[in-house]
Amino acid sequence: MEGSKEKIVLNIGGVRYETYSSTLRTFPGTKLCSLTEPHAPSIYDYDPTTKEFFFDRSAEIFSYVLNYYRTKHFHCPIDTCRSVLEEELAFWEINEAQLASCCWLKLNNKEVQPEEFNIWDDNEQTDDQCLIVQTERRDFSWRTRWQPKIWSIFEKPFSSFSAKCLAFVSLLFIVGIVIIFCEETKAQFEFFTANFTSVGYSEVSHDDHEPYYHQAAYLLHLELFCVLWFTFEFSVRFCFCPDKRLFFQNPLNVVDFLSLFPVYIELFVAGQIQRRPSLGLWLGFVRIVYLLKLLKISKLIETPLILRVLCYTLKSILREICILLMILAFETLFFGSLFFYGELLGSHPSYTGELHFTDILVCFWWALITLTTVGYGDIIPFTTAGQVTAALAAVCGMLTIIIPIPIFLVKFKSYYDIAIFKQKLKRSKKH
């Protein structure tokens, strides 16, 4: 039974199958592959007269198992019980994750389109195909050898231990520069509050400003230290990037590039800032780009599966969400206007209390918090017309919010099941 063209006969539940031994060797480590071993007749139920192996198992499911060895695509009958299929696959030592996506959806009664099932493959390959695709080169220079390694260290935080350490250092610098930005903003605000009067900037001697200038210089040096690290990191990532055009199409890279300028600009115009303190305040507004660097933390943290499923679910029902927001906006305008005129026209002339609904925008605010069932209670109806309007708004708000929830849950459950199946499939391929 060593020849690739030698045939093996299998008797599965009374149904006779005949195939090549090379076909059974397609998936090593499985039970059918072990039938091609020389000692197989002594292990399994082998009839030397008919020269066939006998297994008292389901012949119907085995036909699909054998077809899996022939085509490397595993399908199953639609009317198969899931538990029976799992039992048969466990007997033949085949992972259920090998089941084709179309049959998996039918087996689990999932009303999901094929393109929705493949969205996980497309998105998982986006990062790698976007900037990590290496162009073929004929030379073997040091840059060609080191580019994939350095790029992975700086761009893929979970690729190696060095990448994790570098990501942790970057995270510390990002948090540090945000804290420095907040301290600088606080110091500038206190300085301008103390030295600006109603008629303009007050004339105070330079000695009185000495504590402020000392603190500003200290914070500026710390900021410069952080920005030098960001400059080094950005330069390395840019130099070893496989595709410069796609590199700048990433919004996070654009934020990294813009965050390098504020401190250098301040060092360049340091003399003018002392003569015109308002210029330093404007540079403080430019530094708000540091806050956008916090978005990079999402890349340094491995996103849990359930959050990724939530993002894909929101994308899939984006149209329904827009329609829901339009309905909510219409209800806000409608009930806000009814509440305004109902309270204004229905109030008794002898009422001397303070009216909280004299502005239509305040009524829109009341309608929004009522429709969303938040109900702070800062604005309440006094008249019968206003109370009826408030009751209708509360009921409509509950219906508007509660009805779409089952749609969202069904969609979320479908995507979550698909994600779990994809992870099982990926793990099985690795092993």
The helix tally amounts to 24
* Number of E-type strands: 6
- Relative helix content: 55-70%
Contiguous runs where pLDDT drops below 50 for at least 5 residues: 121-139, 197-207, 349-353
Strand content: 5-15%
Cα radius of gyration in angstroms: 34 Å
Shape descriptor: flat
The overall average pLDDT, rounded, is 75
Describe this structure in words.
The protein is mainly α. Helices cover 65% and strands 5% of the residues. The protein has helices at 21-24, 31-34, 40-43, 59-71, 82-91, 101-107, 114-117, 119-124, 126-131, 142-155, 161-195, 210-239, 244-248, 251-258, 261-268, 270-275, 277-286, 289-292, 297-300, 305-316, 318-346, 360-371, 384-402, 404-430; strands at residues 7-12, 15-20, 46-47, 52-55, 196-197, 200-201. Helix 11 (161-195) runs antiparallel to helix 17 and helix 21 (318-346) packs antiparallel against helix 23 (384-402). The radius of gyration is 34 Å and the shape is flat.
Secondary structure: elements and pairs:
Layout: E1 7-12, E2 15-20, H1 21-24, H2 31-34, H3 40-43, E3 46-47, E4 52-55, H4 59-71, H5 82-91, H6 101-107, H7 114-117, H8 119-124, H9 126-131, H10 142-155, H11 161-195, E5 196-197, E6 200-201, H12 210-239, H13 244-248, H14 251-258, H15 261-268, H16 270-275, H17 277-286, H18 289-292, H19 297-300, H20 305-316, H21 318-346, H22 360-371, H23 384-402, H24 404-430
Helix pairs in contact: 10-11, 11-12, 11-17, 20-24, 21-22, 21-23
